[in-house]
Amino acid sequence: MIRPSIQTVAAIHDISGYGKVSLTVAIPVLSSMGFQVCPLPTAVLSTNTEYGDFSFLNLTDNMEEMIKHWKRLNLRFDAIYSGFLGSHRQVEIVQDFINHFKQEQQLVVVDPVLGDDGHLYNSMSPAMIDSMKELIKSADVITPNLTEAALLLESDYREHVTESRLKDVMKALSEKGPEIVIISNVNKSLKKKHTYVYAYNAANETFWKITCDYLPGNYPGTGDTFASVVTGCLLQGDSLPIALDRAVQFISTSLRALYGTGRDPLAGIAVEKNLANLTAPFRPSTFEMIE
Fold it and tell me: How far apart are CA 122 and CA 204, in angstroms?
């Protein structure tokens, strides 16, 4: 078995040539935190999907060939982290990947990309919901938004939810397999200028809440950045609330770095300018445990 000297993360995401999302976020974030990122691309896009009229190359067949080679090399991964999957077949491939490379003390993070704002993404079909329901059973951590949480539970989507309902939703999702459930961008409010991240850890039955500044606008890649920072923090041994807090602070700082620059928001947040913050001494600020 090949055992690298540093911890490795198999990152299963798409990659965009322009517009910082998915692998172009995960690789710099996790690399700067000291991990070796082993990308397994699901697709190559000319830009992120917010630009429209983008070119798209499906890499399902190539995924299978790469995995066959990795299996022959008997590689070892300390974490498996999946994001956008474009088909039922790709979900099956990731499930097989997790089963084959499973080991003790391994972290499996699944971002169940399905939709937002109460609707499935155009590239997703109802059949993908059933596929994702199966995949999250193998995860330690999942990071759905409110829409995805509702789809996975076959429940009604609500834009604004009470803490009591959120706790029920997170517990119900955890009962399907993952120990940790994280839901971000909850109850966003321009009037109150804040939004929240909620999380549940079934290991000790605790709920956490992080308050974030709500910055209006469309900034692709924030969800990918958030999940990447959380993955890195948990892999390096940080507690769940510290991981959530660090991720929120990193995104907030990266967004503010765009102000006054004239940069197109669709190009993604200023990750590169703030990577040093991921290894700097950390001062927790906004997390709280809720009853």
Answer: 38
Q: Are 66 and 87 in contact (CB under 8 A)?
A: no
pLDDT over 60 at 190, yes or no = no
pTM for this prediction? 0.94
* Contact between 91 and 134 (Cβ < 8 Å): yes
Considering the domain boundaries, does residue 71 fall inside one?
Answer: yes
Whether residue 147 lies inside any domain: the answer is yes
Domain that holds residue 174: 8-290
CATH number of 249's domain: 3.40.1190.20
Instruction: Report how far residue 211's alpha carbon sits from residue 199's, in angstroms, rounded to the nearest whole number.
Output: 12
Task: Count CA within 13 A, CB hemisphere, residue 159.
Answer: 4
Write out pLDDT tens, residues 104-144: 999 999 999 999 888 888 888 889 999 999 999 999 999 99
Asked whether residue 119 is assigned to any structural domain, the reply reads yes
Q: How many domains does the chain have?
A: 1
Buried/exposed code over 139-157 (b: 16+ C-beta within 10 A; e: otherwise)? bbbbbbbbbbbbbbeeeeb
Looking at residue 282, its pLDDT comes to 77
